[in-house]
Amino acid sequence: MAWIIAIIVGGIIGWLASLVMNRDASMGIFWNIVVGIVGSFIGKWIGSLIGVGATLTEFSVPGLLMSLLGAIVLLGIANMVQRGRVR
Predict the structure, then answer these.
(1) Tens digit of each residue's pLDDT (9 = 90 or more) over 10-62
(2) Where does the chain cross the membrane (predicted)?
(3) Annotated domain spans of the chain
């Protein structure tokens, strides 16, 4: 059951990040899910560096915000690699 929730929440977080970074038209649902899940790991790492306790086992607003931040960072890096600049 946890995997299904991770896929759904990852898809939503990835979709929101793609809207923020203006990449919604070029990404499908699969890539939104991947960006959301990988972004949550990046967000957890960033959160541990700055002292925000975002864990993968708890469902919390700070955890969701850190996941969104991680997904935005991931898309920013992807933009730099693909285009040579951030959009």
Answers:
(1) 889 989 998 898 876 667 888 888 988 898 888 888 888 887 755 555 677 88
(2) 6-22, 29-47, 59-81
(3) 2-83
